[in-house]
Amino acid sequence: MRADELIHSVRDSVPDALERGAGISNQLRAELYVSGVLTAPDSGTATVFQPDGQQVATGAVTVTDSVATFSVSISDTALLGDQYRVEWALTVGAETYRHRTRAEVVRKRLVCPISVVDLFSSRHSWTQTPQTACQGSACQTTQTSSLKPGSGHKCRYALLGAGLT
Predict the structure, then answer these.
(1) pLDDT for 103-155, tens place per residue?
(2) Which residues are CB-neighbours of 51 under 8 A, at least 6 positions away?
(3) Going from the N-terminus, what domains does the chain have, and what CATH number goes with each?
(4) Model pLDDT for residues 47-91, shown as the tens digit of each residue
(5) Consecutive H or E run containing 128
(6) Which of 76, 78, 75, 72 has its CA nearest to residue 57?
(7) What CA–CA distances, in Å, run from 28 to 1, 101, 153?
(8) Most buried in the list 11, 39, 43, 58, measured by CB within 10 Å?
(9) 8 Å CB contact between 143 and 127
């Protein structure tokens, strides 16, 4: 790599879930980082491919708050699966950055009904529980924090499912 080349990446933590169906718009996002800084592309394109390599959709991206987005609809007959890919070509100045992200076509996107506000609302309280651990003749007491759900049913079920109660 030449010294004048910039290191770049597109944030890709989990595959995008593309819900199939007429009239359903799936919003894809690409956060471009150049030298570790979120960088707004001047322009760009996104292309979605099926697992067999057939092109599903292509078009120009929209840039909002330094993030490139692309809206795509997937037909009712599209194959369900997780081997879809999105190819991004994002331009900053005279440089075009190319990156691939993963996608999967699903019947329904999962939506979490719980937000951070729900978890830390006044209906819940953190409690401190002393824990004593001994090795041989040496014992140490520490405080363990746990979240106790109150009357909020959404949080109670989520916390039970996550084993946090």
Answers:
(1) 999 998 887 777 777 766 655 455 555 556 666 666 665 555 554 544 444 44
(2) 79, 81, 83, 84
(3) 8-106 (2.60.40.10), 116-162 (no CATH)
(4) 999 999 999 999 999 999 999 999 999 998 888 998 999 999 999
(5) strand 125-135
(6) 72
(7) 30, 10, 32
(8) 39
(9) no
Contact 55, 48 (CB under 8 A): yes
* Beta-strand pair 125-135/81-92: unpaired
Return the closest-CA partner of residue 28 out of 8, 47, 9, 41: 47
- Write out the two tokens for 136: 């041989």
Residue whose tokens read 């014992």: 139
Residues 6+ away with beta carbon under 8 Å from 27: 69, 70, 71
Does an H or E element contain 116, and which?
Answer: helix 116-119
| Residues in CB range of 126: below 8 A, 6 or more apart | 145, 146, 147, 148
Helix/strand/coil (H/E/C) assignment for every residue in 25-89: CEEEEECEEECCEECCCCEEEEEEECCCCCEEEEEECEEECCEEEEEECECCCCCCEEEEEEEEE
